[in-house]
Amino acid sequence: MSLESHLRTLVGDSHVITDSDLKASYETDWTRRFSGNARLVVRPARTAEVAAVVKACTSEGVPIVPQGGNTGLVGGSVPRGGEVVLSLRRLVELSPVDTMAAQVTAAAGVSIATVQEAAREAGLMYGVDLASRDSATVGGTVATNAGGLRVLRYGATRAQVVGVEAVFANGDVVQRMTGLTKDNTGYDLAGLLTGSEGTLAVITRARLKLWNPPVARATALLGLDSIADAISLLERLRTLSSLDALEAFFDDGMQLVCDHTGMSPPFPGSFGCYLLVECAGRNDPTEELATLLDDSPEVRAAAFARQRPEREALWRYREAHTESISAAGVPHKLDVTLPLARMVEFEASVRGAVAAAASPGDDVRAILFGHLGDGNLHVNVLGPADDDERADDAVLRLVASLGGSISAEHGIGVAKAPWLHLTRSPADIAAMLAIKAALDPQGIMNPGAIFSLT
Ligand code: 2HG
Ligand code: ZN
Predict the structure, then answer these.
(1) How far apart are CA 27 and CA 331, in angstroms?
(2) Each residue of 258-275: pLDDT tens digit?
(3) What is the reported pTM?
(4) What number does the ligand 1 atom closest to the CA of 318 have?
């Protein structure tokens, strides 16, 4: 029996897709920069079906690309050519929230917005939030150790994962789902699989930690002269125990967002740097935030909000960057971390590095924004052709030379695999490859992600 026929018997005819029009949305990523032809798309609905599908592919030696919401930004969830795309979106079971343990179990295809909503209804909150919350899935965010807007306070996805269920290449299912707070029993497989980008196993469920929500929030959008002023203000803002988020962007991004969304700027004038600060706590943090900002000479303009709709309106200037950039072209996305002490230097040189990497006369620009509190900037380069990697190379080498990381929160995917060696030593890469070879000896799990094929 052919692999296609075998898979049809496992998941049902309508969940094996071979028609090119129907496959198309699974074959191109959100950025439109990465795409490839899938041999077929298979959509199992339960862990047992995933295990059977993986086993069938392994026995034929056919590689698999696991896919969640397909809103990862490093090309790791679309085929490179000829793989089976294993969509996890039909795994949508969500357990009732366990309010005693403050945990919830969600299948891979549940969206982050759905987890957030379930937590909220139970009087708790999920610590991961990101602009793609409606499309990003539990499986995808666990597989990539997604970060987002609340890492400063709650940590990245790995800090929320208290258990995973996953399918290995040989079809074995491992369950670490007890959610016990203390469980030092051998290797931390859940920690290893989180952030493994589909290269070691397919994540089918996760047990997630929930938090007590703050009672009140206060948000401020600030206009400052420069990122140097933002860093000096950041040092004082970090003394606030209620600090929840600290995001930055620049005037070119503000203009792009206003043009794309039709929003007016939050206050008159244009500024060298914009800082979005959110504080949250069991007591109203408005006064302590306002007092600190009143005493801060760096603040040149400010808009405040306390109620949800007004706060969301301020967040929109930051969150709409991704879609506004996408409307302007297909960007090269370089998600990087810098030590805060080198951030000013990086910001001062990165646009020049991008320009120097282009040919004279090329229309190339770098738009920067991101999670300044985490030292994480998203460098979006518009202009180069999809396969012109000169700007990527220049930015990632600059990051490495300043002691940063070439991937802060999006993962390596295929986009950054050629540069893995910049911030991981040969011994480190050898150890990772040894783990990969042990768990996936045939190399069928998301080949080309994290480690280059050539
Ligand atoms: C964000 O912080 C996401 O909004 C997307 O990580 C970043 O579009 C990007 O480069
Ligand atoms: Zn981000």
Answers:
(1) 18
(2) 999 999 999 999 999 999
(3) 0.97
(4) 4
